[in-house]
Amino acid sequence: MKYFDEYRDPKLAQQLSREIHKITTKHWTIMEVCGGQTHAIVKFGIDEFLPNLIELVHGPGCPVCVTSLELIDKAIAIASRSDVIFTSFGDMLRVPGSHSDLFSVKAQGGDVRMVYSPLDALVIARQNPAKQVVFFAVGFETTAPANAMAVYQAKASGLENFSILVSHVLVPPAMEAILSSRTNRVQGFLAAGHVCAIMGYKEYPPIAAKYRIPIVVAGFEPLDILQAIYMCVKQLEQGRYEVENQYTRSVRESGNVLAQNLVGQVFCVVSRKWRGVGEIASSGLALQKTYEDFDAEKKFSLQHIQTQESKVCISGPILQGVKKPYECPAFGKTCTPEHPLGATMVSSEGACAAYYRYRNVEVRSV
Hints:
Distance between the termini: 37 Å
Strand order of the largest sheet: 4-3-5-6-11-10
CATH topology of the domain at 17-62 and 171-245: Rossmann fold
CATH class of the domain at 17-62 and 171-245: Alpha Beta
Shape: globular
Number of strands: 11
Largest sheet: 6 strands, mixed
CATH superfamily of the domain at 17-62 and 171-245: HypD, alpha/beta domain 1
Order of helices and strands: HHEHEHHEHEHEHEHEHHEHEHEEHHHH
């Protein structure tokens, strides 16, 4: 456990906490972008190590959470067809659509299968030539290379019964949408380390300069997050707004160039709807024209499906860092992991799920 425990050393955590207390003189609001970071913060009580002047708010860094209701309903429509084998990562199966979810489709006889890679879906397609096999391609830049490779291989091998339902979203445009909002409270960002491992962080300096805000690329272990907070607070206190990389063991400025090239070959940038947030310009990926035969949305003619967000669920303000999960009147009552109203409760990286799992008793008493 050596390489695991060294990033959870309580003595080093206390030392970092003391250093953060020492340099903090003003109130600062910092947003961690990634849902994995949110879970680490809530699980390990990282926010309790911080001065009262520092507030952590939770960003839209959970791709399951921000997959639009419209796309969930389209996935359910495809999966309900008798000629389709619908494949997906497990965390998408219980995400609620307008009236149902993919688990319910499976329970009613639909052929819905959990896979661990889009390449698993390719194998299923080869084994079932009489069926249309669809993979639910959800994620940020992190999962885009694997999904691009699946489509690239399908085209190269002439696999006509395979397609993907694309729900890829991009982090930098979402950060800009938050910063340009009239309700914005964010003064510093902890950027998602796994996204930057693929894309690098060359896109961030213009954002930092434009909005005069520090951005620190952060890892996911407690010491990673505490060190990144220290780096961010230090910049804020000194009046600097630069991009720094805490996660040096995994992230280079240029990222993974080979992965970027593959993504650029298969996908193009488009506007995308984010659940609870709305449409953000140039914030998503769609298949290039040369690969549109593998676009499940077009293959099954689902452009007509339109939806309306729940008026009770406040996942939008939560994802924008405007509200906390416990401020939702439905939290822990009509909205639980067993009966979620929104994806922020059902996703393994959702902020509501993190608060419910790790702070349920405390939060319910607020």
